[in-house]
Amino acid sequence: MGFFKTKEKFLIKKECEHCKKEFKIHNYRKDSARFCSQECFDKSRRIIKLCPTCNNNFTFPKYEKRKYCSLVCAYKGVQRGNCLSREVLENIKKDFTHLDIIEEYKVDAGSRWYFIDIFIKEISVCLEVDGQYWHCDERVYPPKYFHKQIRKTAQEIWDRDRNKENNLIQDGYIVLRIKEYDWLKDKQKTYLNIKEEIDEIYKNKINQTSG
Description:
By secondary structure, the chain is α+β, with helices and mostly antiparallel strands. It contains eight helices and ten strands. Strand 8 (146-147) and strand 9 (152-153) form a beta hairpin.
């Protein structure tokens, strides 16, 4: 018993850098010991943050310096600041005031959930605004181009977009697309085309309902 009491005298007290609790260590570790346990050491290397897109907390290593919880949320976050997406939304809201138009809508397509850039509820239209960079427009990027942020090749991104569109169509949604490449080339023509498509879909819906 006396041995352990004597041994205790040689221990010094330190404060854990993570949990701030007091712990005891041998004198030779006074400069190197920073945490009271392996658990506190592991937690100190990670950050808990609120994702600005989905508003859920997520944990990640400090060295990654992340802002979003996933690539999907990162893409949606970038889209929010996309001038093209905002411009398209404002034009559609102005021309279709009688329709419920929702930005960044989450739809259920079978066993999958998808974020839609612009959703027109009454006619089940999913309007996707495809930026050249984030969707690797085929007229700009070769199939083997590797997108560092998405961590996929251009071909894989095209396949992903195609699968998403097919799943939405199979579940009864109508998918329309505006591509940044076309918008930059001829904004007026590109918007007029999409406006006419929405008009036609709405008229068909009204006719089906009245008939």
